[in-house]
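[Q] Does anyone have a clean structure-token version of this?
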Amino acid sequence: MASDSQTGAGAAVREQRFGWFDRSLAVVVAVSTALIVAAGLVQVSFGPFSMTVVEAWRAVFAREVILNPDAWRAFAFGTELPPMSKESVIAWNMRLPRVLVAIVVGAALAVSGAIFQAVTRNELASPFVLGVSSGAGFAVLLVLVVFSSLAAYLPLFAAFGGAAAFIVVYAIAWKGGTSPVRLVLAGVIVNMVFHSLQMGVFFFVDDVGVARQAIAWTTGSLTGTDWEEVRLAAPWAAISVLLAFAGSRQLNVLLLGEETASSLGMPVERMRFALSGVAILAASAAIAVAGIVSFVGLIVPHVVRTLVGSDYRRLIVGCAFAGPALTVTADVGARLALGSVQMPVGIVTGLLGGPYFLYLMRSQEKLGEL
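[A] Here you go.
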């Protein structure tokens, strides 16, 4: 009897811990992973040294790389590459980093958007709409153009710019407290101001190479990314995703409204600010290496929510897989759409996200009161 009781208690604990990982989330994770692998192989196979998808698969999963500690040390710390075949060098050192950066950027932006939508209780919120992307973008652009010697600290400057923009948004929206609609409207205003400041920085550019880099960056481009960008963004993105999952219970409580959250003992404004800090860190890590890739933080959380529900444990995990699926696939489309001319991935996500934003805005029966 005692054994049966212990078995039943263990099953209940497992159900409590992992019961939220239901079939719908498993389908989202499986389909997203399949899309990432398929689009990633197309990305790796395409280029001046062309490979079939099968050859790309063999190069990516070559034992001389997968089972070689020196190769992993070279990728992780930038040391010298060990000897390997030409296909493996092209796949692992030139093309795969672009796929990995797209994965990092997609996960970070999607999770950031999911957090902002809970904090503002508004499905129209995202790092782009709230001005965080523009604030981080202005800081990064300023470093690239004026303080280029500080380029190694881009994520920190991006986080500082994004945080400054969100503080301004919060200050504008504050009226004895904040409301979801005031936050979004203030974000739109701050977004426009920082966008104008970004255009102003271009007047100080006197080098053609820097100007091209800045233009590519403001449109959100993954062209030319390598392991340096992976090393720069991946740790911060991983930390922010883990913190977002750890804060999923608080995000669920925030969705119940300020009064309910306060009655449950939550310090609402303090928690809202802390979770916003996690969202800013995630968005800044993505913006520092890829520029402004718009609307990923808006589209992905909304689509995942319709598939897995509003529980933030499922939503954060779903976004961490569906975000990369969108950015890797969109980057392949951006690279192949115009033949030899590579289009920035931010243009593709903008073309998808703009109409989706209008659809969401028109489908909202009640936007709220100011």
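[Q] Thanks! Anything notable?
[A] The CA atoms of residues 128 and 294 lie 6 Å apart.
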